[in-house]
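Purpose: get a first structural picture of the assembly so the mutagenesis plan has something to point at.
Setup: two entries, given in the order below. No constraints added.
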Amino acid sequence: MGLKDDLQRYRAVGEERRQDLEAFITYGDLGPSGESSVRIPIKIVELPAFRYDQQDRGGVGQGEGEPGDPVSATPQPGEDAKAGDEGTDHDYYEMDPEEFAQELDEALGLDLEPKGKEVIEEKEGDFSEVSLTGPRSTLDIEYFFREGLKRKLATDVDEDYVREALRVSGWGVDEVFRWARGQRIPVSRQWLAQQTPIDDADRWPDIEAMEASVEQTSTLERLRTDGLRRLPFRREDERFRHPEIIEEREKNVVVVNIRDVSGSMRADKRELVERVFTPLDWYLQGKYDHAEFRYVAHDADAWEVDRGDFFGIRSGGGTRISAAYERAAEILEEYPWSEWNRYVFAAGDSENSTNDTEDRVIPLMEDIDANLHAYVETRPNGGGINATHADEVERHFDGVDDVVVTRLTEPGGVIDAIDAILSTEAEPEAEVAA
Amino acid sequence: MSLGSRDGLQRKATKLTGPAEDARALANKLGLHPLPVTYWLVDYDEMNRLIAYDGFPTRYPHWRWGMKYERQRRLDRAGSRKAFELVINDDPAHAFLQESNSTADQKAVITHVEAHADFFANNRWFGLFGDDPDAAARMEAHARRIEGYMADPEIGREAVERWIDSVLPLVDTIDQYQPYDPSPDSETESEHEDGSPVPDLDISADVEGAIFDDDWVEAQEELDAEEQPARDVLLFLRRFGRQYDEETGKAVEMADWQKDVIDILRAEAHYFAAQQMTKVCNEGWAAMWESVMMGEEAFAGDDEFLDYAAHQAKVLGSPGLNPYSLGKQLWEHIENQANRREVLERLLQVEDLTPGTIVDRVEFDRVLEDLEPEPPLDSITEETLADLRSLDPVKVDQSALDRALSGDLDLDGQPWRVLSYEGLAERHFSLTKPQNRGVLREVDRSLLQEIDRYLFENDRYPDIEAAIADVDYTAGWDKLFQVRESHNDVTFIDEFLTPSFIRENGYFTYEYSHATGDTRVASRDPEDVKRKLLLQFTNFGKPTITVEDGNYDNKNELLLAHQYNGIQLDFEEAGETLERVFDLWGRPVNLKTIVKTLDDRDREVARRRGREPDPEEEGRLLRYDGEDLEIEELEWADVEDIAADDVDYSTKPEDWL
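Result (structure tokens, whole complex):
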């Protein structure tokens, strides 16, 4: 119980009560969401109560103004000290693009595998490779020290104690050596020999007397009193660590969004475009490690814009779709096909300058390498006779599986459009017809 | 997290023990009698958490705490966090200070908290909950009980949460004016104030007893229980409500755990009610005494003073209606009025001064000079200390002065230690403060006549000097302490928000206009402004709902009534809330209310003519039977009893636009 628990429950409630994904894409408010955060409004998480009608209630303000004057922003009454925020702030279920992609996969029955591209990037992993040589800075000090310490412990002798053994009456080097080894004291015979003749050689009548009277100090105690002045380090204990080389294929994607912003693209068409492109961008961002987005607006000319401006812009002029593809081709020079996955999504109402589609757009589309080219035709009111771009593209690329054309007439078709685009990409490469 | 596990931070809190003790001593001298306070230091995150949980470390499990926490964090990230402190009403009270506060902020917070603790201890509305709230322990006990039900395999978390979700929408439909009685079954409903079964008849007890004999009284009580509108909807549901059993389609008695959950939520509602009812006066109280202690008594060190000024600016300078600043201004207004009355009373008792002659004959500047604190009261230093002995002894804390003079007490920049309540009152006399110097002069003959009416003597003093010398400097503060005992926001605003205050501060009411489709200034009339303000504070700023009938239509249906006051209910929300009422009643539930109707034609005409349309008031009945919500129109006769007869909170003027 506690905050963690309560937060989890809130999230769960939010998940239950949020708008479902398809409804959100089709007619939800995309405003609060951003490039990398998807915010789905939660339906009424606040508990109801008997309250005044907000509008009818009126209020008290402070400042200038005569009866009848407009009030700038509805001033909020004083802070509600006890209860939570009664304000107009909505609650959202927030998800990142990865989660969005997962959910969309589930909703549409897809499972797009992001393609890793040729470029291999060498990344350094853990320092788990060990070798016997290397620069001093990579010496594994811990190992080195431990080995030295082990050595010390193995050969360390309480010399004073052993010398006392030599003072047992009648004991010489041999007797002491045998006894010491029996005690697992690793004294060397040579060193014993060097201690004789020892003073006071008959101090102890027998070994038992000595053992009873003399205290043995442990290695640790001696280390403490004498210090670690000299540990027996050896060259053969040196080990040098290297980082493991992990070969990573980075999964990059660049998405070029193209939109017809000419006079004929009014608000209803713009909204449809936004509803298709935004989820696509989120989806691809969720699937790929690294995603970049470029936005091209065009009428008879093409120019690059920011995401913020992309959906809102409206200009006056005529339409020449090839301008956009020329611009796209330029942009994509920054993203070599060998290193980047590329998607080129274009949207419009199929109106184009005479012959532009056949003479220029189609060849450009053939030239520009991409995982997928898509054209989204938004024609809520049917189309003019000259609006044939979608038809022409479709006809020309019939059977080719990296070009897809879809038509949208109303928000209800948005999900299908997204589905059409993503499932074309998800399908395995078709075999070339014999 | 529970109180008492704050070991790491306790060490830091000891650094503040000195200031806390000093603040307590100063508060006592100033006449405040706070509850004991325990101070805790918390970090930023813990503060967010505490705010989300209404100030308590432990509450019963519910997702709305998570929601509040998320919102709190969002507000905080946006930089709009103003809370420097959090204090909960308990004995001892608990105050949470942010460890990142500067020392000046901490001192300000402590003085603020002490004033709050005084308010909790002395304001009668806090007394309604009982003498020992034992709040922290109570909240924890509530949490354990609810956790227990959630863990019970026969009940389960979901059922408990759903039940809580049914009760919470109704926690404001309590009778916050009655002492809290935890037992739901005591029969206090049909007793009137004087204990007699019949209200306010001016006859003797014997006669009363003869006419209204026991049988009559009993019959009346039964009728009462059914017919008198009950304010405490939640209590009514607790006593008479049932649960709807889906399987049998019948209303069955609530399970014990369900009753207990209602009892818990009801107790918490009553606990918090006092705070909700006194936001303006409580916050104003704390802000005022904080500024007396910090600013005037220089509780802040010299180097801390600028920090403090910034702190005050942040708290009091928020846009919109700020309860802190409104409250503080009203308290200062009360103080000024009381002090002025005291001075005028003295002046009116001077030999040849009358209401007619005072304005011309009295030199108010001289009077104000005379009212200034006499040396050495105004500036107590090492050198002037001994001079205090020459003052009227009532102004001095004799034993403290003795100790200070003998070197046993180090004043250390805290001269208040050697003064008494009277001495401090003179030192802080409001009328002589620069910002209040105009108050004394603002007298007119009618005010003087009114005061004069209640005076016994007219020529007690030979001259003005003598009269002023006799002024009781504690008049203002004495009045403040009286008011803080008895008032809540509604009575506070109603009594002390004067037309001049409203005009001086440029308050106006605004309303939504159908003619223009937006919000417009409606009225600058002080009466309208006061009414509109009171709307925000009366009954927690929510509409008053009462139980009208527990056996509506003779089918055991519940009939609730909205006591309409000129402002409509949020209809949609009312419907949703009614569904929750059904959960607690078990049988169909009804709500009668009044709506203002405008058809599209009226709106069109209004828009075209640029004139505000006049809506029709009509009765409505909402009914929920467990499945469908129905809305029915009611005859005016059926809703006459709830119509806005005595007060209408709508302030749209006649010829508005």
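Residues 262 and 612 of chain B are 45 Å apart (CA to CA).
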